[in-house]
């Protein structure tokens, strides 16, 4: 085992052990603030000593922070009422998603009720639901309540017809573009891939940029995200609607991935280096002023506006990703969502806390204080959000058409097969052959 693998293994063990300790410590009085435990995990009580008689639950979440932390939001909940006290368990950030996933798997599989509430990457929802670890929430959130969220997110939070997660925060792939360069040639923001290619080639040919379009082709999860968007924008898909068979070998998917190959080898608006790039390597040339267009996540905008890290301050716009003729923009859905442990011994308290955390008022606080995009369209219309986070209001159109990655309890295996097949196709150029072979592998994984 390599040193890196050993470190990850130790971190996973420490995370799971910490979660278990938290459940064993139920009812104990812990000091406010945070304490270090094995593997560098921070666990905090999220408030002072709990009031006698309160129902105590645990909440485990990946780490997000900005002007405030999640612990401070949980503090606010504890101080807002006297029935429930929440102990917050801080997991690593999403950049260490493997460790977060493994910790939750190890703990939820014990079925001892801890943690009562947790946050999960959107692609884990089917896995956790399929294993029976996530509590169905339909009786608590009927159709009228679900209609208050982005439809794509509700779809992603639903497994076999049951709502098994509740939306918290959303992100999606989007198109960053140079406003000044488009204005300079009298071009409109492109709505189709063909228009984007034409503009990118013109700007590149004129010497205004080194690169027309940057994306992420590294054999990693981000390549799947790029593929979901471009395939979806051609009315294609990776899996059939029932999730039981692969459709990535179909003509719409082949044409879409061929387009990505052509950006490198035909129109040459993308450098061959994109095949080894994930988010940050692709972001750097764009904020360095060397590219016209970039596909990436919402975090890029803040960096683009930072004078210490960007050469394009006030020159960057954001729009939904382009689509093929006859298709529509299909932003790949990202973000973390809430779940309730199916084995919780405090179901009503857990649901009450989750309801507060996903409420419009709390989502507004997350947006303003932590920069986490709301999953309720109505929150984007709030005047306070417009004042404090004006960029975030521009994202509503991106998230409205968000498309989830394949929904299957075997997502981890499907994703690895996709990464490998897509990568081989983009390197060899034999897109049809590789996607057809990938479809066969995915069918075998799914038992089709």
From TrEMBL:
Biological process annotations from GO: maltodextrin transmembrane transport; maltose transport
Keywords from the named record: Periplasm, Signal, Sugar transport, Transport
CDD domains: PBP2_TMBP
GO molecular function, one term: maltose binding
PROSITE patterns referenced in this protein's UniProt entry, alphabetically: TAT
Cellular component annotations (GO), alphabetically ordered: ATP-binding cassette (ABC) transporter complex, substrate-binding subunit-containing
A Pfam family assignment: SBP_bac_1
Family in the record: Belongs to the bacterial solute-binding protein 1 family.
UniProt name for this protein: Multiple sugar transport system substrate-binding protein
Organism (species): Kaistia soli DSM 19436
């Amino acid at each position: 085992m390599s040193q890196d693998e050993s470190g990850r293994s130790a971190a996973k063990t420490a995370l799971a052990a910490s979660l278990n300790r938290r459940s064993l410590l139920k009812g104990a009085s812990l000091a406010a603030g945070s304490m270090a435990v094995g593997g560098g995990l921070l666990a905090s009580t999220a408030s002072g000593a709990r009031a006698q008689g309160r129902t105590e639950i645990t909440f485990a979440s990946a780490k997000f922070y900005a002007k405030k932390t999640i612990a401070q939001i949980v503090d606010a909940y504890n101080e807002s009422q006297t029935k429930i006290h929440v102990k917050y368990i801080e997991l690593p950030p999403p950049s260490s998603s493997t460790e977060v996933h493994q910790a939750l798997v190890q703990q939820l599989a014990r079925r001892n009720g801890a943690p009562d509430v947790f946050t999960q990457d959107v692609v884990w929802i089917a896995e956790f639901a399929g294993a029976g670890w996530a509590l169905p929430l339909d009786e608590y959130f009927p159709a009228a309540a679900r209609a208050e969220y982005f439809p794509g997110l509700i779809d992603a939070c639903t497994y076999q017809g049951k709502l098994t997660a509740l939306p918290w925060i959303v992100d999606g792939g989007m198109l960053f573009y140079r406003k000044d360069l488009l204005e300079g040639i009298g071009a409109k923001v492109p709505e189709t891939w063909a228009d984007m290619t034409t503009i990118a080639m013109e700007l590149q040919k004129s010497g205004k940029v080194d690169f027309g379009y940057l994306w992420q082709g590294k054999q990693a999860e981000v390549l799947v995200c790029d593929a979901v968007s471009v395939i979806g924008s051609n009315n294609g898909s990776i899996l059939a609607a029932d999730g039981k068979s692969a459709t990535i070998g179909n003509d719409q998917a082949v044409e879409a991935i061929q387009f990505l190959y052509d950006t490198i080898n035909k129109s040459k608006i993308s450098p061959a280096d994109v095949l080894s790039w994930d988010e940050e390597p692709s972001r750097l040339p764009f904020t360095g002023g060397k590219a016209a267009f970039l596909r990436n996540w919402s975090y890029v905008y803040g960096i683009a506006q930072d004078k210490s890290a960007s050469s394009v301050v006030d020159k960057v716009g954001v729009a939904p990703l382009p689509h093929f003729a006859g298709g529509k923009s299909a932003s790949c859905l990202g973000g973390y969502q809430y779940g309730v442990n199916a084995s919780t011994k405090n179901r009503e308290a857990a649901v009450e806390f989750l309801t507060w955390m996903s409420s419009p008022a709390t989502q507004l606080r997350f947006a303003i204080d932590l920069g986490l995009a709301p999953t309720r369209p109505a929150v984007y219309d709030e005047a306070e959000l417009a004042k404090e986070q004006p960029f975030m209001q521009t994202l509503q159109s991106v998230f409205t058409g968000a498309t989830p990655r394949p929904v299957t309890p075997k997502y981890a295996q499907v994703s690895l097969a996709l990464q490998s097949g897509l990568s081989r196709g983009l390197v060899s150029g034999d897109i049809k052959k590789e996607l057809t072979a990938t479809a066969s592998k995915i069918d075998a994984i799914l038992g089709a």
